[in-house]
Description:
2 copies of one chain form a homodimer. Chain A is of the alpha+beta class. Chain A folds into 2 domains: 175 residues, Formiminotransferase-cyclodeaminase, Chain B, domain 1 (2-Layer Sandwich), CATH 3.30.990; 137 residues, Formiminotransferase, C-terminal subdomain (Alpha-Beta Plaits, 2-Layer Sandwich), CATH 3.30.70.
Amino acid sequence: xxxxxxxxxxxxxxxxxxxxxxxxxxxxxxxxxxxxxxxxxxxxxxxxxxxxxxxxxxxxxxxxxxxxxxxxxxxxxxxxxxxxxxxxxxxxxxxxxxxxxxxxxxxxxxxxxxxxxxxxxxxxxxxxxxxxxxxxxxxxxxxxxxxxxxxxxxxxxxxxxxxxxxxxxxxxxxxxxxxxxxxxxxxxxxxxxxxxxxxxxxxxxxxxxxxxxxxxxxxxxxxxxxxxxxxxxxxxxxxxxxxxxxxxxxxxxxxxxxxxxxxxxxxxxxxxxxxxxxxxxxxxxxxxxxxxxxxxxxxxxxxxxxxxxxxxxxxxxxx
Amino acid sequence: xxxxxxxxxxxxxxxxxxxxxxxxxxxxxxxxxxxxxxxxxxxxxxxxxxxxxxxxxxxxxxxxxxxxxxxxxxxxxxxxxxxxxxxxxxxxxxxxxxxxxxxxxxxxxxxxxxxxxxxxxxxxxxxxxxxxxxxxxxxxxxxxxxxxxxxxxxxxxxxxxxxxxxxxxxxxxxxxxxxxxxxxxxxxxxxxxxxxxxxxxxxxxxxxxxxxxxxxxxxxxxxxxxxxxxxxxxxxxxxxxxxxxxxxxxxxxxxxxxxxxxxxxxxxxxxxxxxxxxxxxxxxxxxxxxxxxxxxxxxxxxxxxxxxxxxxxxxxxxx
Lengths: 319, 319
């Protein structure tokens, strides 16, 4: 059974009536699972996490485009987050039985249908990008809704689907395919920010660390300890256990230790299994392919100190 | 006291008479320390490692250019290693009391003097590169001596010093500045190549590992065990201890362990001290700045299992 995740971001995070009318369209669709949605008032933006069958996902995205076209006029929109469309970005993410190349094809199909149906131009980004300078969304979106009116006419910035003019109220959309991103935080016993700061620097790509890790330090006031906060952009190449064990190793020099770890949002079962296999192998244990989600939850707590974690954080729980 | 390392490679590795006449010029220079030289018959190339005062280094490189100009005719040269000059490459490497920016300046001065004196065109590469596509030497050298005759006339490949034609017998030279490269190997108890192969993949940049690590697996017939063989291109950002501890952690899943480690060639004291400080901190010990090279040798053996290692492998021993 093919399953993709899709995380459309729409440009309304303040007007609850509008948000509800948009979310109602999504909630009514019984073929797609709404995992979560979060509106941010400062950003004036809502992030929606969906999983389900790829073709049904595209159907829902089209219905969502229709309601956003009705509800949102970007000429009247302001917020702290950069945006170029009423739906700003639509990434397709492989979850189960789907290749990245298929997600690229779904993003192309989705973009084509959006343009043909609503005359909203679309740019393909990330793995779906057809030009080097379209891989990173911020490079496409630079200038935002206001600037895209002229930018889209430049030869280098013609949209991948559509003509050289943005939709007058909706703008334009980035549609793409990318890997699952694991938002992962490790708690350090220390209240001093220095260990978290240095360890983040040791492990993140931008200072020569692991190739798919973004990391920074944070002090959690409520919990009264520090944290290394991370995104793992490719959990296959930089598995969770390797990041965890490297942080544990580096923490020793600061006479501190890891007291816990958390996943923000969801995580694919595969990302957990890939890490558990390390610990099982170290302990001469076998991983059983029919392990239940409950078994997996028990063991990630045991070996990787996950806290506030249960089956509902694993994507497969919703399938 | 400013000290640089310089590792000129010249294009003769077979004719012992020629090699000796070239090396004699180097050996006679008492102001520069010849650390090591190695001729490779298959490559038909000799790698020379020198350390000393930067200005005296440039003087010696000029004398070496003169003798190579006399001894080597690239029209008659063949070998497995790509080459574009009788001296093919001249990297300047900061060792003591010298900044990278100063090494860039030395490489520029050296290249300018070589062209002005012998009319051999020079390309600046690595940290000294003035164009993106000159950072990597292979990109400059593509086409080799034979192809450079035409390539150097292309607008994009005009040399940084000299006119748009190579020297008829000497060719042209890549002169540059780079960080010290630590050639570092870790022994695994296992005779099976699989752990070494997988671990090399986990840690090297090209598969998403550490940003400055190149790594591969090797089976050592004489010693009857496997090894992860590595270059650490920046030991400040990817210190030896971090690579060592990560390999140790990954080895556990294969029920194997690290039995030793070796440095090929030389290593700066600073690279060892940076790693020892990790172990001292873990063990609540203080590093003393006046530690002798003997102390350092003792402790890298203790904490990082260095074998076949003594003071003569540390650059500072020669100063």
